[in-house]
């Protein structure tokens, strides 16, 4: 194996093993920041040793063994209690020799450790931005540079955000544990919100030249599946997984060869990923089977399923989608949901009915800078042949969006109104 091949193998191992490695170490040292530093030390050791010795048969255990030794060294240097040294070194004392760390077993309760890491990264003492960054860093295995590029901020900005997040957790003495009772439900909601924020930023980038950032969608889906495996009795976890899987199934059909967006009703549905749709529908069935009443993610997944089950745009059950949006609006009270309901009503009952609902949202403060409000209004006005008004709405929407692809398509629609 060449040095390049080994480096690629190390990168792949890190993406797979880093979350479990950090989670296991955090349980021992009770500090997420220290745990990540130890994991990084182990990664450096791998970069130094594996090109010569080859990738171990059990690379995750090799990394864990090296990281534990570094932890023991740290405790000794800091003259910590001998008890901690004993606890950390117990399994190493009976393991293979130092030159065969790949024979050391990874801790059996790694699932619990991962769950603790999920809840720690999404702790309420952190801002939403910090939660997202720390989740991608600790659980996604992404580098600071990768996270910065995904969110179009300088690497130094993202690095500071991550460092501050870890310092906050340490300063607040946030326990490395899964919350209980009512706090568990509250914190789980925050975890799901973070995962969906990551997915949405990948699915419809808020800024930049690209409509999508697939790597963020993939990370959110992967992390969602992990949480679903760790909390299989929680219906909303499966609801979120279903929603992300079904939405991601359309990714290959959402842009043309030149990168221009293709609207949902114009997409070639043969390009939708049927495997992801099947996974999504299975997760939706699981979510619905766990509870008689559906939560917001499950309802959104049911809406996405209506589109996924329709073989053509014409076969879409818009009446059912409008009903589901009404259910979602009652659950969330979200003006954005009401806007989506207006679109569904327009498809089911005509553009005039939809426009009536949209106009009721005109003075909603939370939508004052939301570019999709004038975009939807422009579309409905155009269908009602009120072209001058439609043009003004599309131009207004184009001025609001920070995504270059969306801006171009909105200006194009405005121009067509002018000549239409």
UniProtKB/TrEMBL annotation:
Highest taxon of the lineage: Bacteria
Keywords, in A-Z order: DNA-binding, Sigma factor, Transcription, Transcription regulation
Example GO biological process: DNA-templated transcription initiation
Gene Ontology MF annotations: DNA binding; sigma factor activity
Keyword Transmembrane helix recorded: no
Database matches in InterPro entries: DUF6596, RNA_pol_sigma-70_dom, RNA_pol_sigma70_ECF_CS, RNA_pol_sigma70_r2, RNA_pol_sigma70_r4_t2, RNA_pol_sigma_r2, RNA_pol_sigma_r3/r4-like, WH-like_DNA-bd_sf
Family to which the UniProt record says this protein belongs: Belongs to the sigma-70 factor family. ECF subfamily.
Protein name: RNA polymerase sigma factor
């Amino acid at each position: 194996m060449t040095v390049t091949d080994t480096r690629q193998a190390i990168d792949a191992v890190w993406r797979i093993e880093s979350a479990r490695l950090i989670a296991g170490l955090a349980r021992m040292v009770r500090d997420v920041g220290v745990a990540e530093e130890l994991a990084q030390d182990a990664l450096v050791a791998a970069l130094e040793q594996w090109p010569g010795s080859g990738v171990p048969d059990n690379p995750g255990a090799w990394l864990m063994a090296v990281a534990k030794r570094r932890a023991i060294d740290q405790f000794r240097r800091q003259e910590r209690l001998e008890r901690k040294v004993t606890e950390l070194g117990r399994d190493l004392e009976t393991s293979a020799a130092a030159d065969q760390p790949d024979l050391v077993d990874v801790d059996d309760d790694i699932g619990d450790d991962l769950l603790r890491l999920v809840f720690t990264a999404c702790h309420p003492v952190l801002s939403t931005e910090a939660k997202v960054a720390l989740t991608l860093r600790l659980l996604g295995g992404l580098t600071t540079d990768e996270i910065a590029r995904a969110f179009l901020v300088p690497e130094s900005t993202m690095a500071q955000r991550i460092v501050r997040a870890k310092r906050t957790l340490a300063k607040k003495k946030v326990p490395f544990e899964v919350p209980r009772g009512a706090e568990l439900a509250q914190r789980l909601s925050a975890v799901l919100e973070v995962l969906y924020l990551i997915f949405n930023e990948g699915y419809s980038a808020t800024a930049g030249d690209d409509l999508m950032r697939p790597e963020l969608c993939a990370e959110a889906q992967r992390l969602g599946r992990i949480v679903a495996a760790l909390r299989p009795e929680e219906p909303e976890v499966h609801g979120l997984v279903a929603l992300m899987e079904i939405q991601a199934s359309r990714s290959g059909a959402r842009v043309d060869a030149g990168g221009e967006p293709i609207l949902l009703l114009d997409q070639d549905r043969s390009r939708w990923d049927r495997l992801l749709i099947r996974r999504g529908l299975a997760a939706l069935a699981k979510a619905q089977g766990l509870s008689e009443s559906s939560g917001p993610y499950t309802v959104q997944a049911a809406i996405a399923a209506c589109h996924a089950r329709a073989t053509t745009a014409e076969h879409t059950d818009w009446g059912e989608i409008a009903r589901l949006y009404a259910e979602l609006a009652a659950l969330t009270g979200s003006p954005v949901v009401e806007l989506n309901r207006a679109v569904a009503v327009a498809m089911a009952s005509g553009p005039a009915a939809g426009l009536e609902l949209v106009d009721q949202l005109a003075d909603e403060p939370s939508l004052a800078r939301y570019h999709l409000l004038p975009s939807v209004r422009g579309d409905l006005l155009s269908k009602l042949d009120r072209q001058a008004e439609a043009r003004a709405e599309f131009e207004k929407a184009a001025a609001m969006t920070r995504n270059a692809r969306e801006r171009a398509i909105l200006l194009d629609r405005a121009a067509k109104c002018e000549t239409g």
